[in-house]
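This is your field. Have a critical look at both lines of this record:
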Amino acid sequence: MDVGVRELRDGLSRHLAEVRAGRTVTVTDHGQPIARIVPIGRLTRLEQLRAEGRTQPARVRKQPAPEPIHGRHGIVSDLIDEQRR
């Protein structure tokens, strides 16, 4: 079931009753899906993949980005970005 933001706000109790009944509500903004409200007992796709053993959490935390490299004419990543435009 698709529902716009305004309609969701105006009829929140009714839409939550739909979710309690086991249905999924897709929230749209100007016709574009932006969120999904699913019953709490249902696994997300990622949870399903983990339960099936098809994926697993990262073993190592993501490291912060390194400091930018400064060249003669500015920061290298900025120069590359300018060339891509």
